[in-house]
Design the sequence.
């Protein structure tokens, strides 16, 4: 399968714990995006990479959130000291240009 | 902040055309308009995009108002497989990607 993959698909954690999600984009795509989606809402943009450079971060991305794309390939999104409000689907997408993003299946986070 | 609005839900009969509207009143002159759709338990799927002119592809057509403050996604013949949540999205200044709240499309056989 050559699509965008995300791991894990589901994560249950206790409030206050740290979690890390991984995204593997389509191999030739230099742009990578992270979004958060809560039930019944559209995706909310979190951050964007071009190759290994993080070029844009949403105001929604608090200091507890950090993302990396160390070699311009896979990316990780870490949430420190999780809160119940962090429960959501975390979506990763990749693209060659801005105009056709390919989304992964998402990681569903539940914070107890 | 950029603001995008869409009707919460729409219904169509199978094999009839569907027009899904989106208002993006704060769009700037260089922002592209995108449409994605999402099936249950899946990530969004790209449908179409445009800047100023109307656009067609194998999935749909995109009609963009002259002032660009609204757009309409047109499915020419809805099928049961088109039942999904449809999102319009714009890229505002600073490369911030803004999705609308989505329209849930039901297709009746």
Sequence:
């Amino acid at each position: 399968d050559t699509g965008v993959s995300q791991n894990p698909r589901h994560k249950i954690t206790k409030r206050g714990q740290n979690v890390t999600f991984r995204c593997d984009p389509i191999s030739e795509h230099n742009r990578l995006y992270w979004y958060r989606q809560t039930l019944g809402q559209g995706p909310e943009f979190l951050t964007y990479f071009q190759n290994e450079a993080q070029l844009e971060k949403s105001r929604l991305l608090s200091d507890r959130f950090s993302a990396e794309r160390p070699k311009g390939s896979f990316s990780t999104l870490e949430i420190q000291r999780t809160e119940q409000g962090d429960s959501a689907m975390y979506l990763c997408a990749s693209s060659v240009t801005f105009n056709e993003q390919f989304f992964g299946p998402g990681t569903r986070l539940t914070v107890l | 902040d950029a603001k995008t609005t869409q009707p919460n839900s729409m219904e169509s009969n199978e094999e009839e055309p569907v027009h899904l509207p989106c208002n993006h009143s704060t769009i700037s002159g260089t922002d592209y308009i995108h449409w994605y759709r999402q099936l249950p338990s899946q990530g969004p799927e790209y449908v179409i995009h445009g800047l100023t002119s109307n656009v067609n592809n194998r999935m749909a057509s995109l009609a963009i108002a002259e002032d660009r403050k609204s757009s309409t996604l047109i499915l020419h013949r809805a099928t049961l497989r088109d039942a999904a949540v449809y999102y319009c999205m714009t890229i505002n200044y600073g490369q911030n990607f803004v999705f609308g709240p989505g329209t849930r499309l039901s297709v009746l056989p």
Summary: The mean pLDDT of chain A is 94. Chain A touches chain B at residues 4, 33, 35, 41-45, 48, 55-56, 58, 91, 93, 98-106 (CB under 8 Å). The two ends of chain A are 33 Å apart (CA to CA).
